[in-house]
Amino acid sequence: xxxxxxxxxxxxxxxxxxxxxxxxxxxxxxxxxxxxxxxxxxxxxxxxxxxxxxxxxxxxxxxxxxxxxxxxxxxxxxxxxxxxxxxxxxxxxxxxxxxxxxxxxxxxxxxxxxxxxxxxxxxxxxxxxxxxxxxxxxxxxxx
Length: 143
What we know:
flagellum
């Protein structure tokens, strides 16, 4: 698929950051097993303070909740992006210099951005500098 970008940046840095967040994480059950093992194998002459265990448990619980919230926010952002992309179908778009313009007939969302398919089969990356309107650009109206 031939995609024309109106700028040199395509969001690969965002894509790399999104991929790095997919690393494996320690589950709550595994954390509790480690905590129990730590309690069973501690030095009986120097037992750990119970407040340390509670603090570790509270800390892990907070991190786990943050991970869940981030996951839900990512899903929400994706949903909003898809709704916005869907609203572009039937609209007219043109890049910053007007060299690519047309009516949007389809939209595809990728991890590094959104691509609109125009009536003439060309594709345009939807990014900064794109003009969106309900009416055709002046160059197309005269043609």
